[in-house]
Fold:
Amino acid sequence: MRRQPEKKRGTPKSLFVHKGDQVVVLSGKDVGKRGKVLRALPRENKVIVEGVNIVKRHQKPRGQVITKIQAGIIEKPAPIWASKVMVICPGCDEPSRVQHRFLESGEKVRWCRACNSPIDQK
Ligand SMILES: [Zn+2]
Structure:
């Protein structure tokens, strides 16, 4: 008997957004904001974008006076859904719907439809 593949939650998928991309936020409180992708979380289908979806963590002072520097409000970007962002093409500076293309070498690249060139510069 063939074993059925288990449907696991959070199966890693490849995201269309990669670390280091410039993206624009399409919805939510940070709509219209641009930022650099600090981390891509394919497993959760989320990305962490610089300066977007900032959450404030209240850090309690603890320990000795020396370590008190860490107390206070720490602001850090929280993950947002990858579907809420659009990759900005570095070539034409336009938010673009990413297309995938295969080069003659068999390499898969992300392609910008607006300026008809690869998004991934190497
Ligand atoms: Zn482009």
Residues 89, 91-92, 94, 96, 112, 114-115 surround zinc ion (CB under 6 Å). The chain has no helices and eleven strands. The chain has a mean pLDDT of 86. The two ends are 47 Å apart (CA to CA).
